[in-house]
Each structure stands twice: as structure tokens, then as C-alpha cells.
Queue: 2 jobs
Job 1
Amino acid sequence: MTNFYFAGVDTVYLANKYKTPLYVMSENIILDRIREIRTNFLEKYKNTEAFYASKAFLTKEMARIIKRENFGIDIVSGGELYTAMEVDFPAEKIIFHGNNKTEEELEMAVQYGVGRIIVDNLYELSLLNHITKKYNKKANILFRVTPEVESNTHRYIQTGQLDSKFGIPLSQGIIFEAIEKALNLPYINLLGFHFHIGSQILHNKNYKKAIENTIKLMKEAKSRYGFITEELNIGGGYGIKYTDDDERRPISYFTDAAMEEIETNCSKYKLKRPKVIIEPGRWIVGEAGITLYTIGSIKRIPGVRTYVSVDGGMTDNPRPSLYQAKYKGIIANKANEEATEVVTIAGKCCESGDILIWDLKVPQVEAGDILAILSTGAYNYSMASNYNKIPKPAVVMIKDGVDRLIVKRESYAEMIKNEL
Ligand SMILES: *Cc1c(COP(=O)(O)O)cnc(C)c1O
């Protein structure tokens, strides 16, 4: 009997040691991804920067790893900013995103001195102007634009289309009103434009179209206002391998195509090529994480389906129920046994939609088996909830074959500690 090993460690040993459900992350995979970005993007192209989109997976330890690697970090809320501040993350290496940053969050960002604020709309511009004046501090901003392209991904994770809650549309003239306003505000330093067309993107066609549309805007801003774009932030969204149907793409697949498109369009419009910033999240951490569960009840409905229930579910991984995300699973304590049946992996929450994997081929399963679900490093821990009053799992980080706890399992008492 062979167990499934992840990052050089026996996952059954981890499940016994830390209990389940359990998130397991590989620091070596995270570091490999960061190094790939450094070698094949940052060192290959001058005047570039990479920021980790922390909403994919953020804990204090993750922020420390990113800080040590000298990458920047993207945040989208006061809570993410607070987490970064707790590990003294350098403020100038923080980018603040979001379509509805509150006044408190913007104050926090201005006081801490975050490097870039990505202004999403005109309301935010005036709010920020008011705050920067109050603190007598200048803010560096980019405008988030919606480049009006679709991205071949689930509707819930598309963000670049005209009908989106994010960003300023390129058509309809609002962007020019915004640029003109920003250029006249003494405490606002407009540096350029940002777009992010969506997540889990596996093809470059619409990404290139978004670049082309945004560079046209750069050209228009130059001819109307003499505005020179210093920074072009082309977001993240680089897709990863979830199941055997997906192909893992190197970072250069996306960044080489993007840089070529940028160079081509900048020379076409006789523009200086601005600094190019990328913001990968999932691509750095997605495949670096797995989740371990213990199998409990098994319901066989002859001729219909077999439901295999685990001790977690949509509370630790809402993505399958939120947008039909697909995952690969392995029975960790029967890793080399032949798959003889097809089962459906169900969570323990009181929702029929709480299914983690439909139709997974497995060996003969029984209660007590350990299930490993792969590629759960992104948008699992960070999206976890306490629905059904289920405590959040622990997170273990593995480096060079050594496991260490980085987030303790939540207790029942901790879960209700704020309830009066
Ligand atoms: C979510 C997000 C990212 C990262 O997306 P991934 O799919 O995790 O790479 C980058 N930039 C912005 C603005 C985002 O909202």
C-alpha cells in the first residue's frame, strides 16, 4: 500500500498529525513559481514589476514569504492591508485595489503610505483627494479601466467586459473626465492605467486585445492632455492546472505574448513603453496547495450515483458550488490502487449544491480513507466561511520536506468569541 506524497511528505501522516480537513501548502512550489517569474519575466524585460495578488491566499506567513522574495503585494481590503502591515510589509510595495474602498480603508492606505492606489471610479477619486489633502500626503494612482473584452472563463470571474462592476469603461468618455480631473488635483499623482480581465485565463487572445485597447487610451491621453503613461498594470488571472484536462502554462506563455503586444502597440503609436506590472495570484499559489479530508458516510444509490461524504466542503472550498470549479482528487491512503468505481465527493454542509467533485474515479473507498484534493492553494483558505458553524481548517506549510503549522485550526470558542 502506497500513500500519496505531496511536497515530499506523506499526506496520511499529515492528516493523522494535524487532523482533517487540512490545507497543506508547499513553500518550495511557491518559491519555484516566484523564481520562474523573476527569471522569465522580471530579468528578461527591463522596467517591469510583479505583485502577488494576495486575495488568492494570504496569511502572515505568506506575506513574510513574499516580502523575503522582494515581490510586491496586491491587497483589496483593509483586512488584507492590516495582515501585510502586521509583518511590516514595505508600504511602497503594496498596491490597493477594489471597486468600493471605504473611507476608513483609504485613510488607512494613505496613512501607511501604500505605493499605488488603483482608483476604480470618480467617486473614489474625490474621496481619495479629500483624504490626501487632510493628511497632506500625495497618493500615486492608476485608473482601473474596463478594456471591454470578454475572457474565456466563468462569467463570475470575468471582469474586463463593459457590463462589469469593476473599473472605468473606455467608451462613453468617462475615462477622459477622470484623467482630466486627476491631472488637476495637487495631491493626486496619476501614473497610468490598470486592467484585469478575469481569472483562470488559459488563452491570450482577449488579453492581447485588452492591451491594445488600453494602449489606444494611452495614445489618446497623450494627444488630449500631453499625459505620458509611466505605468501599465496588466493584472493577473493566469490559469493553472486543476484537472488532467488542463495544461500547466509557464509564465512566459502569458508574459511574452503581453510584452510583444505592448512593444508592438507602443511603437505603432510612438509611445514610450511604460513600466509593465503583472499581478499573478492563483498562478503562484494554486498548485502549491492541497486539501486533506477524511471520508465518512458513503451512500450508494444503485444505478444512480454513489455519494462519498467528507468532513469539509463548501466552507473550506466554495469554488465548486460558486462557479462549478473542477478539481482532481486522490484517495491518499490508496494511491497506487486501481480505480474501480466512479463516485461523487460531497461536503457536509446542508446544501445539495455542496459537492466538491462530480464523478471521480477511485479505488474501493471506505469510511476513514483520506481524500486529497489537488490545486486548492488559491481561493480556498481565503474564501473559507463558518457556514453551519464549521470551524476553519488549519494550514500547514511544507519546506524541504519539513512541515510547520502556519494557521491553527479554529476552535468552537474562537468561532463564537465575538457573539454577545
Ligand atoms: C484577483 C485579481 C488578480 C489575481 O487574479 P488571479 O486569477 O489569482 O491571478 C490580479 N489583479 C486584480 C486586480 C485582481 O482583482
Note: The CA atoms of residues 219 and 270 lie 8 Å apart.
Job 2
Amino acid sequence: MRKSYLMTPGPTPVPPQVLLSQAKPIIHHRTPEYTKIFVEVLEGLQYIFETKNDIILFSSSGTGAMESSVVNLFSAGDKVIVTSNGKFGDRFVQLGETYGLEVIKHEYKWHQVVKPDDIKKSLDENPDVKGVFVTQSETSTGVLNDVKAIGEIVKATNAVLVVDSITGIGAVETKTDEWNLDIVMTGSQKGLMLPPGLAAVSVSEKAWKLAEKSTLPKFYFSWAKAKKALEKKQNPFTPAVSLIVGLRESLKMMREEGLENIIKRHAQLADAVRAGVTAIGLELFAPSEGRGNAVTAVKVPEGVDGKAIPRIMSSKYGVTIAGGQEHLAGKIFRLGHLGYYDKFDITTALSALEMTLQELGYQFEKGVSLKAAEKVLSS
Ligand SMILES: *Cc1c(COP(=O)(O)O)cnc(C)c1O
């Protein structure tokens, strides 16, 4: 017998009470029973997003919410600024180009943080820019971009700020209204502790005004259709009922813990992982000025087969972590700690990492990562 531990930054583990809530007989979505659940879910999401804005749900993975922000806000030829310092920023570039937007790319190295001043300069030079895209928490690298500072800059212009907070929500502060984040999105299989299949996006008043002028084609991902249904506390099409039922349960858990405590827990777990891996001589990939709480990317040490690390951790110890993506394949590995995690998930993962690195010939003093992590976790 061997247990499995899912330590990836999406999908993330689903709590037993959430799983059980989804095992109940299916209900119909045009009933008062469903409406009651849906209303609770919308209120719970507003609490987690720290917003009074409308929240729209799609039965899709997170990318559906990303695509919806492009097709609902813009028209072909519209000028937008897209920042990218990783795989998910690149996805916004691809989406913008796919739909014929004029994309002003602000591309950074993957270990760098997006510089708000660059956006300010670009907006000054291009007053006709209609939107700015930022990935708050770059899951491919663990880098955290300062969407608060960017919100302050974009607020003063006619452009709307689109924030991919898919691994930000529920892990780091994301004050949608206070920080002037016009569009904020997340996916179910991340901090919301659900199976994959739902995406949520919040839309500000400023964004709704821009959306009225958008002429890009849209049907399933139409925000206008969703808004019309939302007025009757309904969905335009058959929603993913079981996931919505599960979401009510996970949001209930999140309310009970409290948003501030959730973020504190994530910060502590992230600190413990970082203390652990640096104690055995490994280096973090994300720079100290921009590290999120959802995932820790670690550089593979010289002389170690990087691709073997996730492979052995999974096959031998049942701990599934993520490798590096694109040009970072084999060069970094990523430990997820987003959602349903506590202290002992961290020590388990570090223990499996130590045993794996030992097998791969990396030299270090056994147990030191656990010692360092325990120091953080017991404080
Ligand atoms: C997971 C994730 C997405 C969406 O990916 P899907 O596979 O479509 O759910 C987008 N952006 C970030 C930062 C993510 O972590």
C-alpha cells in the first residue's frame, strides 16, 4: 500500500467534505434549490475576490476565462499591452494575436518581475491602449507580479486591467476593488480546492462599459449572456452543477477559516518550503522581490538529472510535483502548496525530495530541510 500526495500548482487536492458534497444526486439547474446554491456561491466568490463586481462562471478550465476576457472586451485591431514573464503571460500574447488584437508585448525573462514603470511609460506613449494584461502569480516560475502597483497606474487611463489571478486568488492578497483590478479570474482546480472544470471572472463597471463596444465574435463565452442570466440568478447554459455544489462547500470552508488566515497559512507553507530547499543548498528560481505563495520553483543543482526529480518522487514515493515548462524543462522543479495544504504536507514533500536527491547523488546533510521547515512551521 502506498498513499498519493498531489503537490502540483493545479490540479490541487480536494478536501473530503467537498468530494462528498459532489456525490449527492444531481439536481436540476432551473430550480429554486439550485438558485439558492448559486447565489451562495456568487457571494462566497465575491468574498474571496474582495469585490462587489459581477462574477461570471464558465464550465471550462482557467483558459476559458482568459479567452473570455479577450473576446468580450475588445474588437479586432484594438491596441493592448500584454506583459509576460512566463508560460501563462505568453498565453495572453497568443490569445490576443489569435483574435487580431494589436499586441504591444512587454516580455521579460522568466526569472524577472514585471516592472510597473514600463507599463506606465508604454501607456503614456500609447494613449489609445484599451487593455493591459498581467499574470499576477506566474505558475510556471513562482514569480509574483505587483498588480496593486499596476492597478494604480492603469486606473488613471482609459484602459482596463485584466489580471490572471488563477493561482493568486486564495494564496496571496488580491484586493480586486481596492486595487482597481477590472478583470480578475481564477480556475476551480487551484486555490478553490475543486476538481478542474470551472472558471470564474469578475468584471468591473469600467470593463462592462468597454465590453459594450466589443465586436469580436463570442457565443458560449459571452459575458452579456451571462449577465442577463445572472439578473435572474441563473446561468445561460447548463452549468457544471456538481462543481457548483462542491464550490459552495469549499467556499464555506474558506469563509470559516477567513481570507486573512488562508493567506497567512499559504505564506507560512511557502516560507517553510523555501527554508527547507535552501537549507540543503538549492536555489530558488523566483527573485526575492517577487515570490508568490502558491508554488515554489527550485533550480536543479549542477550534475543532477532534473527530469528525474519529479519522476522518482512520483514513482517511488507517491509525491507528484511539477517539472519545469518550455526552456526550463529539467532545469527547475515546482512544488505546489496552493489550496488544501497544511504543515505536514510540506514536511512529507521535503522528505521525499531529500530521499530523491540522495538517490540522484546530490550531496547534503540528511534531514536539514526538515529541520529548517519545522522551525518555520512551529513558529
Ligand atoms: C492554471 C493556470 C491557468 C489556466 O490553465 P488551465 O489549464 O486552462 O486551467 C492560467 N494561468 C495561470 C497562472 C495558471 O496557473
Note: The chain has two domains: 5-10+259-377, 16-256.
